[in-house]
Amino acid sequence: MDGSKLLAAVLASLGMLCATGASVAASARSASGLPQARYDNRMSDRQASHILALHNREREALGLPKLKWNRALEREAKHWGHELARMGRLQHADNAVRNGTGENLWMGTAGQWPVETMVNMFIDEKRHYRHGNFPEISRTGKWADVAHYTQVIWRDTQEVGCSVVNDHGWDVLVCRYWPAGNVWGRKAY
C-alpha cells in the first residue's frame, strides 16, 4: 500500500471510530433511563428555567422584579460546588473570589433530594423573616436563620446562576446572585 492509500485508510478508520464513539455517547442512559448530562455539566435549559421559576415565584408574590439567569454565575457555582463536594462540607467562597455576588449553599446525600426541595429550603426560611433593616431581620434574633431567603428576595438582585453538582457522594446546590443581597443597614425590599 502506498503512503496516500495508507493515510486514507487510517483517516477512514479514525472517522468510523469517532462516529461510533459519538453514537455510544448519544445513547448513554442513566440508571433512571434518562439521557446522561453532557460532560460539561452545564444545567440544561429546562433545569435552569425550573430553578429560576422557583426563585421568581417567591419574588412575584412580593411584587419584586424577576431575576434573569446568568450562565457565567452558573459556571462559577458549578466550580465551587465541586470544591465543596471534595471537602465534604459547606463553606462560602471568599468574597474576593465571588466578585460582588451573593451565595446560597445546600448539601445533601447524592440522589436523595429533588432540586425543588433544595431551593424551597432557602425559601422556607421566610417563616422566621421579620421585615427590617439587615441584620435585624429574623424573629429568632439570628440573621443567618433567614439569610438564604433574603438573598432570594433581595430587591436589588437582578441575576442568578445555580448549579447542582453530584460528586463524592454529595449533591451540592450553589446559587450565585448579582448583585449580592444582605447588605448591612438595608431592607430586603
From TrEMBL:
Enumerate the UniProt keywords alphabetically: Signal
**SUPFAM superfamilies according to UniProt:** PR-1-like
**Signal peptide span per the entry?**
1-21
InterPro entries according to UniProt: Allrgn_V5/Tpx1_CS (IPR018244), CAP_dom (IPR014044), CAP_sf (IPR035940), CRISP-related (IPR001283)
User: Cross-referenced Pfam families, in alphabetical order?
Assistant: CAP
Task: List, alphabetically, the PROSITE patterns matched.
Answer: CRISP_2 (PS01010)
Every copy of the SCP domain together lies at 46-185
User: What GO CC annotations are associated with the protein?
Assistant: extracellular region
Name of the featured protein:
SCP-like extracellular
